[in-house]
Design brief:
The chain is mainly alpha-helical and 137 residues long. The protein has helices at 16-20, 58-82, 88-99, 103-121, 128-136; strands at residues 32-34, 37-38. The protein is 51% helix and 4% strand. A two-stranded antiparallel sheet has the order 1-2.
């Protein structure tokens, strides 16, 4: 293209190990301070996890829904094989109840998957170098 090259300064590399450890897509630092509390910015590299947008993690709700429905369906099937005389309604309620203890885990992974997906689609540049060069002048 007329010798013009477009270079993405922050290329995202998929790292399943970082995702399993619930780490930052940029530096791998843990994204959560406790099971129900997430850092606003990465303590390691300063990446703003929610980009400062209200409602940013709405997409993570879809990821969470997509993760929970197959788990509940599989549990319902297993419960049907174990307790065939119960109604489908009772089996689904029991499967849903068995999933409740895993809600914090599913919530964390849905946010991790969403942040990694977002960084893959539209990576944030590291503005720390730009800020540093402006203060030196």
């Amino acid at each position: 293209m007329d010798g013009m090259e477009f270079e993405n300064p922050m290329k995202y590399r998929l790292s399943p190990l970082v995702m399993l450890r619930r780490g930052c897509p940029r530096c791998g630092h843990v994204m959560f301070r406790s099971p129900l509390s997430m850092y606003d910015d990465c303590p390691g590299c300063g990446l703003d996890f929610d980009r400062g947008d209200p409602g940013y993690f709405t997409g993570a709700m879809y990821v969470s829904y997509g993760a929970c429905i197959p788990i509940i369906a599989l549990l319902t099937l297993i419960l049907h094989l174990l307790i065939p005389i119960w109604s489908l309604f009772r089996l689904v309620l029991l499967a849903w109840g068995l999933c409740l203890p895993f809600v914090p885990w599913i919530w964390q992974y849905s946010r991790v998957i969403w942040v990694h997906f977002d960084q893959w689609i539209d990576p944030l540049r590291d503005d720390r170098e730009e800020t540093h060069s402006l203060t030196e002048d």
